[in-house]
Amino acid sequence: MRVAKVTNEKLEFNNAAGQGDGPASTDDALYRTLVERLGADRLSSDASVRDAHASDWSDAPRVAPAWIVMPRSPQEVAAALDCVRSFGGHVVVQGGMTGLAGGATPREGEIALSLARLDAIEAFDEAGGTVTVQAGVPLATLQQYVEAAGWFFPLDLGARGSCQIGGNAATNAGGNRVVRFGTMREQVLGLEVALPDGTLLSMMNRVQKNTTGIDLKQLFIGAEGTLGIIVRLVLKLVPALERSSTALCAMRDFEQATRLLKRLRAGLPGLSSFELMWQDFTDAAAQLTGARAPFDTRYPLYALIETLNADDDSAVLERVLTRALEDEIVADAVVAQSLEHARQLWQYREAVGELLAALKPHAAFDVGLPMEKMASFVANMRATLAARYPDSTHLFFGHLGDGNLHLLSGPYRDAATLHDVETCVYRAVARAGGCISGEHGIGVLKTPYLPLSRSAGELATMRALKALFDPQRVLNVGRILDA
Amino acid sequence: MRVAKVTNEKLEFNNAAGQGDGPASTDDALYRTLVERLGADRLSSDASVRDAHASDWSDAPRVAPAWIVMPRSPQEVAAALDCVRSFGGHVVVQGGMTGLAGGATPREGEIALSLARLDAIEAFDEAGGTVTVQAGVPLATLQQYVEAAGWFFPLDLGARGSCQIGGNAATNAGGNRVVRFGTMREQVLGLEVALPDGTLLSMMNRVQKNTTGIDLKQLFIGAEGTLGIIVRLVLKLVPALERSSTALCAMRDFEQATRLLKRLRAGLPGLSSFELMWQDFTDAAAQLTGARAPFDTRYPLYALIETLNADDDSAVLERVLTRALEDEIVADAVVAQSLEHARQLWQYREAVGELLAALKPHAAFDVGLPMEKMASFVANMRATLAARYPDSTHLFFGHLGDGNLHLLSGPYRDAATLHDVETCVYRAVARAGGCISGEHGIGVLKTPYLPLSRSAGELATMRALKALFDPQRVLNVGRILDA
């Protein structure tokens, strides 16, 4: 058991901050009560601090919070909630603020509760591979911490340096390795949650298998902070996997892609990524980044494959791909011969950031589709969008291993057109039996479309749960469900 | 997409059954209303049928249900619940009745609702590897059905021929392969549930990644039928894994066992079982079955290892174990050279059934423990039980990969002593931060001990959820939570 306390000095409010100019527009009495219960250095109403907390990474309109509360312990989070509730106030929870659905962007009049100071790694079972952390620990900090002891935390996403582990759980984050390790939900053994009634609900299970009644923590994973605030987590780890092997494959059609995925999942248990890119995506990526074309011939589909293992998998990967070539499951394939080569192969997939910037203002989708519907969905959607919006670019890629499809479409100069594109795509997703978000969540931006993905009974049940846990509607109101 | 309907003729009630002698002891008007809404052939009050539904596989005292309802569709399950609720009746849900915690054994006056006739396999996405089934499909039927198409359903347990897939979800079943594939929870993509208010709640998600709000299906997985009746499921599959490799390892202490597990998890991604047996267990198994001792020397601990892969893993297994021998992580090891040899190695572990019978009346535990506490827990508990109950035998084994420890202790001639043993073990589990059930569940038999595993806040939240979903207390009352 090792215990660490990582303190981020940058998070200290400036001198006198917390008293500062006092609140801008909300209840003075609540502010004074919070100062009394938590201490003045837990609060700030400075304009610059408020501005820094006015928006997450999404395109939701910026709104500065009334003020910011930064508790330093789970107990302080609960006390802050208790206070705000008793005064009839409203709280927006803020983690690393890297969300893309507007869930952490304040709504008018909300108090921002930031978890940045809950940043302790509390316990580490090095024999069993479990770690107990506070919600505000950044993902990359956790990854590095456990790697130093020969363990590996498999969740990974581009925002790893900024996003916090509590936010990863609240949004059930995904990323590129879900095909092997599952989403954040599968990494969580236990949670502690501050409830809107001001109590701490302890569900700090530490064992892998637990069948002692209703698994309550599941309610809070992916609930985007609407039922309670995740303050502590018990996470499971996997042993360090130091060797990765990479390959790029070309396919003639989607059926080849699904057959290849099935073949790889069976023959390569170390398979950790299977990223699919349609030709329009790789063409645009090559054009934008100047990357060389992957093969002499262009193909309709490409799959970027990665394995993680203690030993080098590339011989097995070559053998499996050679057989796949013979069996006409792939049209061409290249296995990376060096780290630099692997980096080159990832270049197309990692052009996403530049493509996002180039197509602004854009519509970016992260829908989920049943595998048997994906090929026809992409074909129909490509034709529909090309006909309706011939001046925009429409690029398809995704994590085929888990049915998650990204569509990047833009630019669109006005909000009404953007809304049309979204409605068109989400309705088609609903017709195909898919879901409107596979990893970015609903936040405030997708609440109007939620009924396309969830049944009337589910929406009613979610509202009933919201009423049960947060009857006074203190917490993250307007996220997932309409305000 | 393939669709099948498996009909089990044995499930038809006899002629005139359903009318028969009419109900034995409960409300005539409710019985008549059920006959009107569902049809006479959906009900039975025959003494022989009632007797067949009087107990699950546990030691809970037999109680014949007032009568039996066997709906043939999800709609009929919901209608039956609606009827019973409107008359103030009580329902116990029955699947394959293989549970070991008494959850499916009726309580006095309950009507048994059997899911045996909901046995259709409704849809099969062969490209993506998902299957849609009704709750009453036996686990083995599902396994065989998907194997015929090159897919594999990884959940497996001894009761596979009798247990039903809906019951596997309601109890979050585990088994021997959790270290690789997770419990039943990880196999479920979507559910449809009949609620006590008589409605069907559809959560039939078909995609692997779905972040569209609260994941409501999780509430019903492992809730042992207390919140609703699972009637349909969408399950995910893995590609067929046709080759298994088996090894038996001997270790000098528990630390070697955890180091070996970590080494194997890293170097053998196909690792599917890691079954730990303490020496007292293997000695008793050898004595009872006449199996040869695994090695010339006796060792404190043995691990039975299995991998599942498309290709033969035994060369890799041999390499990893040779290195482990060199590094003194194992004391001795043997890799099976044939299927017959593998069967011999499994012999010790599979002696459990005979040991259970030999030690009757026994106390059988399936507790979960944090890995760092397991060695001391076993040492302390062995000493404590040997001192208190010197005439009984106490055997330890478990699924080390997931912290699940079995303890088999007996015989005990009277109920009071059995109760003492249980209290002693469960209190020690609570002190070690473990859980009182890792796979068998709470049912009616473990409700008195639940507060040792769940916090006061969790118990209150479970009661609040029960009140939300089942305010009139129609369904599986007294399971998990006290009546």
What does this structure look like?
Chain A contains 15 helices and 19 strands. Chain A is of the alpha+beta class and 483 residues long. The first copy, chain A, folds into 4 domains: 4-114, Uridine Diphospho-n-acetylenolpyruvylglucosamine Reductase, domain 2; 124-239, Uridine Diphospho-n-acetylenolpyruvylglucosamine Reductase, domain 3, CATH 3.30.465.10; 243-351, Alpha-Beta Plaits; 359-438, Alpha-Beta Plaits, CATH 3.30.70.2740. In chain A, strands 16-13-15-14-18-19-17 form a 7-stranded antiparallel sheet, sandwiched between helices. A 6-stranded antiparallel sheet of chain A has the order 1-6-7-11-9-10. In chain A, strands 2-3-5-4 form a 4-stranded mixed sheet. In chain A, a hairpin with a 4-residue loop joins strand 18 (393-399) and strand 19 (404-410). In chain A, helix 1 packs antiparallel against helix 3 and helix 8 packs across helix 10 (314-326). The longest helix of chain A is centred in the last third of the chain and has 18 residues, at 371-388. The radius of gyration of chain A is 23 Å and the shape is globular. Chain A starts with a strand and ends in a 14-residue tail after the last helix. Chains A and B meet through strand 10, strand 12, helix 8 and helix 15 of A and strand 10, strand 12, helix 8 and helix 15 of B. Chains A, B: One of its GO terms (molecular function) is FAD binding. Chains A, B: Belongs to the FAD-binding oxidoreductase/transferase type 4 family. Chains A, B: Keywords: FAD, Flavoprotein, Oxidoreductase. Chains A, B: This is FAD/FMN-containing dehydrogenase. Chains A, B: InterPro entries: FAD-bd_oxidored_4_C, FAD-bd_PCMH, FAD-bd_PCMH-like_sf, FAD-bd_PCMH_sub1, FAD-bd_PCMH_sub2, FAD-linked_Oxase-like_C, FAD-oxidored/transferase_4, Oxid_FAD_bind_N.
